[in-house]
Structures are given as structure tokens and as C-alpha cells.
Amino acid sequence: MSKPATARKLFGTDGIRGTANRPPMTAETALRLGLAAGGYFTRGDHRHRVVIGKDTRLSGYMLEPALAAGFIAMGMDVSLLGPLPTPGVAMMTRSLRADIGVMISASHNPYQDNGIKLFGPDGYKLSDEIELAIEQRMLDDDQDGLAAPDLLGRAVRMDGARERYIEALKATLPKGMTFAGLRIVVDCAHGAAYIVAPKVLWELGAEVIEIGTQPNGFNINAECGSTAPGAMQAAVRQHGAHLGVALDGDADRLVLADERGELIDGDQMLALLASHWQPERLLRGGAVVATSMSNLGLERYLEGRGLHLQRTQVGDRYVVEQMRRGGCNLGGEQSGHIVMTDFATTGDGLLAALQILAIMCRQDRPLSEFGRVFTPLPQRLRNCRLNGLARPLEVPAVRASIDAAHARLGDRGRLLVRASGTEPVIRVMVEADDDVLLNLVLEDVAGAIERHA
After folding, report:
1. pTM of the predicted model, to two decimals?
2. Which residues contact 434 (CB under 8 A, 6 or more apart)?
3. Which residue, among 406, 409, 393, 407, has the nearest Cα to 450 in the 3D structure?
4. Residue 79 and residue 380: Cα distance in Å, rounded?
5. Is residue 431 within 8 Å of 375, Cβ to Cβ?
6. Domains in the chain, please, with CATH?
7. In angstroms, rounded to a whole number, what is the distance separating the alpha carbons of residues 402 and 398?
8. What string of pLDDT tens digits covers the 453 residues of the chain?
9. Which residues are CB-neighbours of 441 under 8 A, at least 6 positions away?
């Protein structure tokens, strides 16, 4: 697993994130980030370019110009893409030969939060080491390299980014494939995909039923999207749809519902894609990459097919780093980040939905008949909220409870305890082949943490 050499103060598992207009997610931070990232990526004497996309949060109007000002001050030209899914920003970074790509989004978080994710010129998220170097420049107030007055950058609002992203998505499908005759519910979480998701499905021939496509700056992820898929499930049943797709706020992840309205998570999607790619010799690296959160049932299923499950720490960029090291082209997270590096450099909810729809078309069967390819072990997750500066994982009694739980589970299950990189919580995940054992372990460990939180 990739780990930062030094603890970072601003960057978490997916960029910088926090409550909008409160430290660190302020206009000042965004300006400093633009200056620092601009300075880090200014290399050579060519005219440098930055692309900036965002989701639909109100605070995007504050952060976007602040970031742009920092980059412009470093002599970089800025292309403002407007609302666009995170994978679309990554794609445009490469397509436009930009030096940096920026996505302003807090993903699945409520509108009060926002975040900033950075992509390198190759379209991949930055490594821990690069983020640490940029952060150090921000904390040191390092403004070396400010452009001369005649070399300042310019900002332009770019038209056509959505259409280019849509065409790139369609190009991943076999030539001539159509979704004509399919009725699809798509929930865009009032987020970045509110235009592109219904449009690409409609252009491919589907009848599209839209949910979450009326953003107002405040309703992103509000009782909708991949973290609250109930409305999507109900719409699938109500309209007799063949498939339901629920995206998150920046559309880099999804959950699916079959024609009965029953959910299919990221682990099942990984298994489904692997099971179809392997016999066609499309799966590379002899493995699928996932995080420590993925179900043990997925690991056992892949082993039965002669494949390995390579685990990383939580965060889709760590998945991508391992995929690149191991020569794998399929990876993701249980939460619905699905990464297919033959087509994209980061998780892409729309891309994953299209690839699974392509399998549906070839199978000519309802998704309920083949969409769940393994039986998951029972799994429960509890978020233990932290108060103030509490550090319960450093308390001996908590450590002893965790050690005892590992011994108790043995090879019958798994325990994962980790601090969230995006929220002030400790996440406790337990899975076991016995519900009683699972609940006992969860209560013991979570209870110990909560007593010292």
C-alpha cells in the first residue's frame, strides 16, 4: 500500500475537503493551492494550461475564481469547464495537453462541504509525495515563480467539454451497439452529471427516466444519488425499468439496481466484469485490485477463478496506483468506484454503467439473473464519531480490544478499523460467516472506540 512519507495537514485520501468557507476550504486556501500547484507544475518555457471542472455546489462559485487567480498569477492559462464529472475533467486534462487538472467537488458529501482534487498532465490523481510537496509550498507561503505582468495567464470559459466527454464514453462500446428497447432510471444526485448522464444514455437509444437532474446549489446528494439510492430503486419498480443507475455528486462512482429494484454494489460489479473479461482475455495482470473494504466473498470468488484480489488502503487513487504497478486494468471499491484503465484514468460511474449495459445486451437476460456472481459474507460498518482531539486508536484498551477481535475472528472473517480521510470518524468494518460472531466483534470494538472518542 502507498503511504505518505510524512503526515499531511491539508490533503486527505481524495484531495482537500471540508466545510465550505471554513478552514481549510476557503477562498484563501484555494488561492494558495493555485499558486503552489502552479509553481510545482511550471516546467519548461511552453505556455502552461490548467483545466478546472466542478460539481453543482454553491461554494463552487467561490472556489473556482480563487483557484483560477492563483494559476493565472503563475502565468498559466485556465480553461473553465463548468459542471462536469470528475472523470471528464481527467479526460480533458489529457485531451487538452494541460499541465494540471482540477476538480472542485466533495463527491458524496452534502452541499455544505466542498473539496479540490488535482490531476497531473497524464490525467491520473497525484501521488502522496506530490501532494505533500504542494502542501509544503502552501504552508511555507512559497510564491516563487510569480509571473511578470506581461506573462500573466488568462481564463476562458470553455464550451463543448460535456460533448467531448460524451463522445469518449460512447467510443468505449462495441461499434454499432445500441440500448434501444431498454428503459433506464438514472439518478444524477443533482450533481456534476445532471446533463451528461441522461444525454449519453438517450443518444445510445435508451428510454431514460431522470432523477436528481435539477441542481440548485443546495440539493446535491440530498436524499438521492449513490449514497441514498431508495428513490432510484422505487423508480425502477414504478416504471418497470430494466436497470437503475445512481451516481454520486461528481459521478466517479455508482450503484446499480436490477429490474426488481435490488441493489448491486461495487464488489459485485468488479466480479461481473472480471467474469466476462477473463474468458475473452481482456483482463490483464491476473488480478483485480480493490481496497481493504471489499468483501471477503469477492476474494474467494476470484480465487476460485484462478485470479488474485490485490488489496490497497481505502481511496480509489491507491487502487489506480496498484493497478499501474501490477499491470492490471480492472479495479475499484465496494462503494462503487470502478476503474477501467483501458478507457479512463480514474473511477467513472457512467463508464461502468455503460460497460455493464453492454454485457446485458450481449446476455439478453435481465440483470437479476447474472448481476450477482458471488455470495458476500455478512458485513457491517459503524462510524464512530470523534469529539475534538480524541485519538482513541492510541488508547491501550482500544488496541487490546482490536487485537482480541482479530484473534476471535481467525480465518472466519475480517476486521478493519481506520480513520476516515474525509470525516472526523473512525470506521469499524466487520465481516464474518456467522452473524452472532460478527455482531459481538463489532459491538466490542466500536464500543471501546466510542468510550474514548
Report:
1. 0.91
2. 412, 413
3. 393
4. 43
5. no
6. 16-158 (3.40.120.10), 164-262 (3.40.120.10), 266-349 (3.40.120.10), 379-451 (3.30.310.50)
7. 6
8. 444 445 678 998 889 999 999 999 999 999 999 999 999 999 888 999 999 999 999 999 999 999 999 999 999 999 999 999 999 999 999 999 999 999 999 999 999 999 999 999 999 999 999 999 999 999 887 677 899 999 999 999 999 999 999 999 999 999 999 999 999 999 999 999 999 999 999 999 999 999 999 999 999 999 999 999 999 999 999 999 999 999 999 999 999 999 999 999 999 999 999 999 999 999 999 999 999 999 999 999 999 999 999 999 988 999 999 999 999 999 999 999 999 999 999 999 999 999 999 999 999 999 999 999 999 999 999 999 998 767 899 999 999 999 999 999 998 999 999 988 767 899 999 999 999 999 999 999 999 999 998
9. 405, 408, 409, 413, 415, 430, 432
Of 295, 258, 274, the residue nearest 371 (C-alpha): 258
Distance CA 27, CA 296 (A): 43
Q: What SS3 class is residue 91?
A: helix
Determine phi and psi for 384, rounding to 5 degrees: -95, 110
Here the cell at position 315 is: 481511496
Grid cell, residue 334, equals: 465496494
Burial class (CB in 10 A: 0-12, 13-18, 19+), 423: middle
Grid cell for residue 416 = 478493519
Residues annotated catalytic, as ranges = 107
